[in-house]
Structures are given as structure tokens and as C-alpha cells.
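INPUT
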Amino acid sequence: MVETKELLADPAIVEKIVGGDKEAFALLVERYQKGLINFIYHMVGHYEEAVELTQDVFIKVYVNIATYDKNFKFSTWLYRIASNCTIDHLRRRDPMAASLDERDEDDNLCIEPASHDLGPHDLLEQKQLEKEIVKSISELSPLQRELIVLRHIHYRSYEEIAKITSLPIGTVKNRIFRARKQLMERLRDKR
Amino acid sequence: MDNLREDAMRCKKVLELLSRFIENDFADEESAEIKAHIDKCEGCRKEYEAMKSLLDRLETIPLVCVPLSFKDAVMKHLPEKKDEDK
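OUTPUT
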């Protein structure tokens, strides 16, 4: 029987990699590269840095693949590693700063085209607001930023965020509610 | 005066709870109380709408692209596993 590797579930792919099938790792990279680069990009604020860090995360995942516990969702384990690497990276990069002041300008970025039917004026307004939101997110503390990004840009459940960040679910909720309030206040200050 | 103070206290409490209310994180009775307040208080209603609008906007933030060669670069940098790891 011909096996279609693309259809394999994550734990089955992991089993292949642990068994020595190095090429099977490419399937996991394909599956998670977009989500992970975007998660890390919204955390660090620099595209090139995010790409490099995402590459490091995948290598770390590969090296530690045998420690993956199948009782957990693979994506939760992956994001947990990414979260730890990113927070460590931010601490090393700028131990004192809670915010990211030098984010990439939109012009330098490869942004996925959004489907919209707005006129030029509304489009400009929308882009401006998006920029302000992204800037306001970057001004949150790294931990608050992580929670907002996971919840609202990556649509993770509270349960999954709790597992990724190793925080109790009640703490995750409270911190997200507080971070949203701060975000709204920061946005109001910019308007 | 007492009524004014009571209203201000209620607004303060409702504003603290808005985020949870939007997520339906309350029991029916509590949720109905907050909704009733939002319906009649213009200030809190505006805050509620602003918070909802922010959450909607967050979900439309554009995503960055993956570099074309990204997967190949990762695969090229994977270390060789030692036999005992297998």
C-alpha cells in the first residue's frame, strides 16, 4: 500500500522521525512554519529576526523530538518550545525593555494580501489602525504580548494557552482580560 | 448624590468585567445584569463597543509570509542524530 505522508497525523510523523526518517521532519515544518513565523514575528517585531528564530525553534524541536509526549497535542508542545525560546531571546536581546520600539516598517515586509473591498480612503484608515494596534501590542510586556498574540492572532483556546505558558487557566484568563484593557487604553492614547 | 455614587460604582465594576462578558464567561444571571446595565448606560455601551471592535480588529491583523526557501534552510541545518538517539 502506498503511504501518503502528507496525510499522517503529527504523532505518526514524530514516530517516523524518532525512527530515523529525517526527511519526515519536512512535513512538520511545512505544517507549522506559517503559524510559528507569525507568532514569533508578533513577539519580536522584526521579520528577519523572526525567521531566524523560527529556524532555531524547528532545529530545537528536531533535536528533542524523542522527548515529545504523545499525550499532549504536538502543536502545544511546539508552541511551548517556541514560547520559551522567544522569551529567552527577548530577555537576552533587551533585558530592560518591556516594549519593542524599533519594529519593522510595513514597507519592508512581505505581508499576505488581505481580501477586502474597501475604497482607497477606508483602506488607508484601516492600514493606519492596524499599524497602531500592532504598535500597541508591541508595547505590552512580553508575557502579556504572548497571551494576546496566542489568543487573538492565533486563536488558541485558553486551555491550550495555559499548557503553552505553564500558567493556570484562571491566571491566563485574568491576564488576557487585563492585557486587552491596557491595549484599548494605549490605542485610545494614540488616537 | 448616593444614586450618582452608586451608578459610578456600577459603571466601574461593569467596565472591569467587559472583557469577560464579551467571552460569555459569566453565569446567565450575572451576564443578564451586565447586559441590562450596558443597554441603559451610554458610557459603558461605548466602552463595550470599543472593546468588541478592538477584538474584531485583532483578528484581521495581516500575517507575514514564509520565505520560499525556509523549509529547505531548516532541513539543511538539521544536525545528524547520533545512533543512540534513534
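end of record. Chain A has eight helices and no strands.
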